[in-house]
Amino acid sequence: MDVQHSADGKYIYIRPQEFLSPGQTYRLKVDGSYYTGGMRLGNMTIGGSKSGRFGGEFNFEVEDSSQALPLSWTRPRSSALSGRAWPRPSRPCCPA
């Protein structure tokens, strides 16, 4: 698993490094300490003090694939991916 936290320090991103097995149930357990105070510098905090602990776990199951390969892309449905409005980079308002 690849675990990273967001630039604002409020979220963690957990990504598997390989495909998860269909029909398998996985348990994700997360625990650690949290800090308050300090100075934010990008996605790091310099200084601060340990303020407490957090923890939790949840289970999830990977469904068997109901679609045969190759996956298809037709409007308005897709077997290839699902999502909502994808963010697009905005153009600078004052070009140099």
Q: How would you describe what is shown here?
A:
- This protein has 96 residues and is mainly beta.
- Helix content is 0%, strand content 41%.
- The protein has a two-stranded antiparallel ribbon. Strands 3-6 form a two-stranded antiparallel sheet. Strands 4-5 form a two-stranded antiparallel sheet.
- The model has no long low-confidence stretch (mean pLDDT 76).
Order of helices and strands: EEEEEE
The structural class is mainly beta
Largest sheet, if any?
2 strands, antiparallel
- What strand order characterises the main sheet? 1-2
Mean pLDDT: 76
Number of helices: 0
Rg for CA atoms? 20 Å
The dominant shape is elongated
Distance between the termini: 41 Å
Low-confidence region ranges: none
Query: What's the count of strands?
Result: 6
Helix fraction by DSSP (H/I, runs of at least 4): under 10%
Q: How much β-strand is present in the residues?
A: 35-45%
Topology at a glance:
Layout: E1 2-5, E2 12-15, E3 25-36, E4 39-41, E5 44-46, E6 49-61
Keywords, separated by commas or semicolons:
single chain; 96 residues; mainly beta; two-stranded antiparallel sheet; two-stranded antiparallel ribbon; elongated
